[in-house]
Amino acid sequence: MIAAKNLGRSIPGDLSIVSMLENQATNFFEPALSGIDWKAKELGEQAVMLLVKIIEGRENIISGRTITTEFMVRDSCGIKR
């Protein structure tokens, strides 16, 4: 965002920016930073539960898990909330 400003570019006028790490800090950017909430806490919890099952011998096949993500739209991508 600083580099864009230094180059005379505006956000979201010339560029849109989306963060891959969604947290409360995104609200402190100007304009507010859009981001993808990939549910890190839920992802970690699922990984630990699977690891415990494997260690205890209750599961020896790693099966797929689906954890949904959410796109948090804010002003940095040109869409007003």
TrEMBL record:
GO terms for molecular function: DNA-binding transcription factor activity; transcription cis-regulatory region binding. InterPro entries: LacI/GalR-like_sensor (IPR046335), Peripla_BP_I (IPR028082). It holds the Pfam family Peripla_BP_3. Residues 3-77 form the Transcriptional regulator LacI/GalR-like sensor domain. Keywords: DNA-binding, Transcription, Transcription regulation. This is HTH-type transcriptional repressor PurR.
